[in-house]
């Protein structure tokens, strides 16, 4: 099968487009013929080898973490899907490979594609949608009346997080560049801060949650806008010791992460706040729930650009630059935008 893969960790020059074996499936898996796969910041972090201390990928490695495609084979124990079903999924963290013509998907991580979306739009949802949903509902436990600040509200996670936070009844503020101010207002943002003009920590206060996509200095500044007992949920920067330990990192890695995050952890204690770094977990059940929101018109993915598989390197560079509005998708099968 044709795939985008790496033989060594490193920059974009390491990404090859070529033939790789079709993955074998186990008794609880699906073999999916991929129609489209989305590009996420985690993809170039994996490519660069930055996650090797906590996720030990073996080379050669086919890249890509979420997809939409058609089921071709089902494992012996699978009863929830059949060949011909069109599904979308976030792949198991330890068994990625969405930038390819075929991928092995754990059946419990998949859900039927939302009827309202074609395969390209559906592929944009799993990782970003699950990240936003789990951050808001499982980690921060956002409720009606809470105040939530979403950093980078025009990005793939941010555009979905704004809509989901509003569904939960929250008051939502977000930071964006000037060109995206009106777009995030349409998505439901109550307060919009142009980060080039205004400092969010100078104009916001008494918030229950800050959803951070950047890490570092942004987190330290975020503590000042939270009420006592508030929480920063981060998917930026480097993992916390708590998350890395749960993923099986060795003691030296844990020591390095503790040193790297020392100011962030100390700041949370000093301000009486909580800080939680999160890696989202694949969940077919939650994807089915998000699909219901999509098909009833309550949640709409925002799309930026679509690249062919041959241009995977360009797609990765485009996302790494940080200027995408919504999601970037790789079209694996021609015509996926009508499927």
Please provide a written account of the structure.
The protein is α/β, with parallel strands linked by helices. It has 2 domains: 2-125 and 301-338, Medium-chain alcohol dehydrogenases, catalytic domain (Quinone Oxidoreductase, Chain A, domain 1, Alpha-Beta Complex); 128-277, NAD(P)-binding Rossmann-like Domain (Rossmann fold, 3-Layer(aba) Sandwich), CATH 3.40.50.720. Helices cover 30% and strands 26% of the residues. The chain is built from 12 helices and 16 strands. The chain has helices at residues 41-48, 119-123, 126-139, 156-167, 181-187, 200-203, 217-222, 241-246, 251-260, 262-271, 284-295, 312-320, and strands at 2-6, 15-19, 29-39, 61-62, 66-74, 86-90, 102-106, 110-112, 147-150, 171-176, 191-194, 207-212, 226-234, 274-277, 303-308, 327-331. The strands form 3 sheets. Strands 3, 5, 6, 7, 8, 15 and 16 form a 7-stranded mixed sheet that branches. Strands 11-10-9-12-13-14 form a 6-stranded parallel sheet, sandwiched between helices. Strands 2-1-4 form a 3-stranded antiparallel sheet, with no helix packed on it. β12, α7 and β13 (226-234) form a beta-alpha-beta unit. α3 packs across α4. It is globular. The two termini are 21 Å apart.
Keywords:
339 residues, globular, single chain, Quinone Oxidoreductase, Chain A, domain 1, alpha/beta
